[in-house]
Amino acid sequence: MRILVAGAGGMLGRRLSVLPGCHGADRAALDITDRYAVAEAVTGYDAVINAAAWTDVDGAETREAEATALNGDGPANLAAACAASGAVLVHVSTDYVFAGDGKAPYPEDAPTAPINAYGRSKLAGELAVRRLLPDRGHVVRTAWLYDRDGRNFLTTMLRLADTQDTLDVVDDQRGQPTGAPFLAAQLVRLAQAAVAGHTPAGIYHGTAAGETTWFGFAREIFAQAGLDPERVRPTTTDRFPRPAPRPAYSVLGHRRWAAAGLTPQPDWRDELRDVLTGGPVA
Description:
Blueprint: E1 3-6, H1 11-17, E2 22-25, H2 35-42, E3 47-50, H3 64-85, E4 88-94, H4 117-132, E5 137-142, E6 145-146, H5 153-161, E7 167-170, E8 174-175, E9 178-179, H6 180-195, E10 202-205, E11 212-213, H7 214-224, E12 232-235, H8 268-277
Helix pairs in contact: 1-6, 2-3, 3-4
């Protein structure tokens, strides 16, 4: 089976591109906002995984049209091309499509209500995929994605640990830290099952099991890295004002994986351990 990975230059895309059967295309090789280039690129592939995205959450507040072109129009182009070619599409979305005011894990069919421009742009992509590819379009929402390389929360915490005695980390936002290699493997499994006709189209939640706060995540990073977790101190979101509001609650439910015949991802602590050590991915 041949899988095209759009957005292969990003953190998730790099992980996807090295998996068996995957062929990566970064922004230079494939601009998903160019519908003619997309139609040509998709030809001959059994499935497409879209990891291309505008990810600058704060920047989207003043450049929403640009964010929507990549996060909304780009997935629409991919969905239209897959509809024409017969390929399956697995499109990566985000917890930011929700308001973040929940008290229990959001099910896949929970009402969406993004509170910032980035969330609106990603919701536009979801809606396009479901409209244009209702039978072969799979939307996978993820959250709090990290890896041991590049710029992300894990590498930032480890870098700051070398230069600061203590770190203040917000303790009033809850979510599910999700290792990029684990999500990449889950996306490929979903694509393979979808091509085989074993999985219903629609929305899935690709996050680790369990939940914590950024403060809890930071303490666990320190502990697993052999550092003193007491160096991490709790604080509140209002101490770090940002242009784009962040959802306070981003915990996602995983019920639909059973319908696909697939096992959800492991607990976030287990994922962190394997990401830090380069151990096996379940």
